[in-house]
Amino acid sequence: MRKFVKSWLGVAVASGALAAGASGAVAQQKEVVFGLQCDRTGPTALVGTVLCPGYHDYIDLVNSKGGVDGYKIKVIEVDNEYKVPPAMEAHERFKKEGEVIEGVYGTPQTLALTKKLEEDKIPGTSPGFGNAAAADGKRFPYVFPIAASYWSQAGAAIEFVKEKLGGNLKGKKIAYLFYDNPAGKEPLPILNELAKEEGFELRTFAVPAPGIEMGAQILDITSRYKPDFVVAHLFGRSPSVSIKELKGKGYPLSKVVSFVWGSAEPDIIAAGGYAVAQGYNTLQFAGVGKDFPVLKDIVAMYKAEGKSPPKEMDSTVYYNRGVMTAAVHVEALRNALKATGGKKPTGEDLRKGLEHIKDFTLGGLVPPLTITPTDHEGGGWCSVWTVKGDKLVKTKDWYQGFRKVVEKQIAADAKS
Amino acid sequence: MTMFHREAGVFKTTYAADMALFPLPVARWTVAALAVLFVAIVPLALGEYYLSILNLIFIAVVGALGLNILVGYTGQISIGHGAFMSVGAYTAANLAVKLGLPFWITLPAGGLMAALIGVLVGIPSLRIKGLYLAIATLAGQLIIEWTINHVPAISGGAQASIQVPRPHLLGLTLDSQSRLYFFLLFFAVLAIVATLNLVRSRIGRAFVAVRDQDIAAEIIGINIFRYKLLSFAISSFYAGVCGVLYTYYFGIANYEQFQLIVSIDYLAMIIIGGLGSVLGSIFGAIFVTLLPIVLRLLLESVGSLFFDESDLANVISGTRLAVFGALIIFFLIVEPEGLNRLWRNIRSYFRVWPFSY
Questions:
Q1: In whole angstroms, what is the distance from residue A387 CA to residue A274 CA?
Q2: A341/chain B closest Cα distance in angstroms
Q3: Which chain B residues contact residue A24 at CB under 8 A?
Q4: Which of A142, A254, B282, B327 could bond to A118 as cystine, CB 3.0-4.6 Å?
Q5: Which of A17, A52, A89 sits opposite B53 (nearest CB)?
Q6: Is B333 helix (H, G, I), strand (E, B) or coil?
Q7: Mean per-residue pLDDT of chain A
Q8: What is the pLDDT of residues A182-238, one digit of tens each?
Q9: A185, A190, A301, best to mutate vs chain B, most B CBs in 10 Å
């Protein structure tokens, strides 16, 4: 029996330590709280472990320069493990700490928090995931995709294909290789609409979860369908598998364009390295590489502290997306403080701050972002980067692909 | 509290007294005290954040109880309970959105639909047991996931998610955590009482007989066919209700919330809590929901003493996962029959304390 008492003693000690730690935090000076949901241990840990340090580093950079109008930014990060109930718990935690803006993470999590964010009047950002229809700020006042949704990416992908195939898609064959989940299917209405408008033939190839077995689909594409171009929309481990398999079947990777979650350095490395992936085209919603002033500032900040810059910086696609999210949050805060005249802003002020972001580029790392009360997506900008040599090289600068079709779809979705 | 129960001097003179839900006066007082605590004190004393955690626990309690009826009491394994939850969720969401029905119709409807699907998935249990049944129900999970993903009439379109309006009660919109607290508390208590009554009824005893030795059960006159399927039906009903509660709690039905990992999480709850016990289901739901949160708060407060600020986030996430796993192993080694058994051991230790020998 003694061992039970012992184990309970352990619990008591642990909870005592917890209480002591909680009372240790005392508020000081002028401070605003940002909430950041992250996925450092779940199925997309590959992304979270790089993206979130990018977010923190940018906020640290802003704080090291004295914050925004005298306000320091405190970031609270919670790892939601890509599960929905912990995401709700995280949101309530942020709210308790007085957050004014929240970086949400994950499509199901964003969907589950959409209503709560609105009720609590706290704006949440969902760059590159969540609901494409949330671009409509009138319908979803507190959700901000702030980057190209899957609809915009579909438009951008087809625009790029059109350019590559000589400006005319009539009679061409395009294969859409996608992960068989709601996010994978989301672009279908845009692709079908464009197939009708542009006169190309679209055939879809679904890859079931967990997406590491797609031999049959690739064989079908390369040997039977023989498309003029492949548009891929995969997640997690599956992009690297698709690169490897397409290469193995001799399909030219220069005739493949991937959506934003199959387009980072880890995907290329996992596929067997840059030599294998030569010519592979990737859509991006943030700049790639290290050649941006803000990244140099971050390196300088680390140098000034006598530290070497973090290794996450080398994985530039996801790191830069973290920096972009943070920069948009800070810009919203800046706008909000301008409007309140230096008074501590609320979540509602931050929402208006986001809606007043205009031509924000952060030295090229961010597309010419303009968010308005009606367009929370900020224009749906994409750029295309291609694997050349041992890096990703920009092949098409910021553009909006088939914007009219995307806007039509957003309007149609609002009616349904 | 219950550790101070004294059976001495309590004599039962009728069958009714012997079968009472709470045979000891002290137990009735305990229940009354708990009722006051949860209805009056907790919602006033705790803020929205802590209530949100309790709300998640309440929903988990309903699901864990349901799974325990099937796995713990009847001895039939299911790895498909996540999918049964999604059946309840989409049934309720479609009824609420397309027909505008209130929660007191959609909630039982979601449960009944899940029960129906549960019976279908449970049919193999009539011929196979153990690992084979586990795989059969796993297939059920995947088939249901696929169906919802590919049938727009159920899923409501490519996003496979349906926004659901907040439930209304007596003119109140249940939107804040404190309002949802009472809503969810009610159903959690209902589920607990219903399960307590079920397991001491003829049906519950039949379940236990099937679990212990189904051939013997059949010989003493228990219709195996009926009771195995009944167990699947009741258990899936709970799962369906749990899914509906999630739907109203988040304001959305989305099958990605109910994937395989959820089925496994719930199995973990009842194994840690204690198979075949109501209190164990509650303990398990609390443990699995609360432990990651407590560990994170703990690591956040003491972690900065040992780690660099920039590494801390990764350390917290990784350590939390490792400690969570280690604690589960620890508790199961200390007491393989779960937290419920551990609790009973502590109780019986204190019952005779300090004169244990």
A1: 7
A2: 30
A3: 301
A4: A142
A5: A89
A6: helix
A7: 89
A8: 889 999 999 999 999 999 999 999 998 888 899 999 999 999 999 999 999 998 889
A9: A185
CB count within 10 Å of CB A375 equals 18
Q: Is A43 exposed, middle or buried (0-12, 13-18, 19+ CB in 10 A)?
A: middle
Write phi, then psi, for A233 (nearest 5 degrees): -135, 85
Taking the CA of residue A4 and the nearest CA in chain B, the distance in Å comes to 7
| Among B251, B302, B346, beta carbon nearest to A4 | B346
CA distance A137 to A145: 10
- β-bridge pairing A229-233 and A256-258: parallel
Strand partners, A202: A174
- Interval A344-401: pLDDT, tens: 999 999 999 999 999 999 988 999 999 999 999 998 999 999 999 999 999 999 999 9
For residue range B256-276, what is the model confidence (pLDDT) as tens digits? Answer: 889 898 999 999 999 999 899
Rounded-to-integer distance, Cα A342 and Cα A69, Å: 7
Rounded-to-integer distance, Cα A174 and Cα B163, Å: 33
Q: pLDDT digit string (tens) for A21-55?
A: 444 444 457 899 999 999 888 788 888 889 999 99
Residue A183: closest CA among chain B residues belongs to which residue?
Answer: B159
| Amino acid found at A371 | I
Strand partners, A143: A124
pLDDT at A156: 95
Contact B49 A95 (CB under 8 A): yes
Q: Up-side HSE of residue A46: CA atoms within 13 Å toward CB?
A: 19
Establish if B291 touches chain A: CB-CB under 8 angstroms: no
A18 against A180, higher pLDDT = A180
| Token pair of B69 as six digits | 């009826």
Contact between residue A38 and residue A79 where contact means Cβ atoms under 8 Å apart: yes
For residue A77, the chain B residues in CB contact (below 8 A) are 313
Residues of B in contact with A81 (CB under 8 A): 292
Residues found in chain B = 357
Residues of A in contact with B49 (CB under 8 A): 92-93, 95-96
Dihedrals phi, psi of A375, to nearest 5 degrees = -115, 95
Residue A75 clears pLDDT 50, i.e. is over it = yes
With H, G, I as helix, E, B as strand and everything else as coil, classify residue A174. strand
Q: Residue A392: beta bridge partners? A: A387
Our CA angle for B316, B321, B324, nearest 5°, is 115
Nearest to A88 among B56, B254, B294 (CB): B56
Provide, as residue numbers in chain B, all residues whose Cβ is less than 8 Å from the Cβ of A75: none
Cβ atoms B346, B279 nearer than 8 A: no
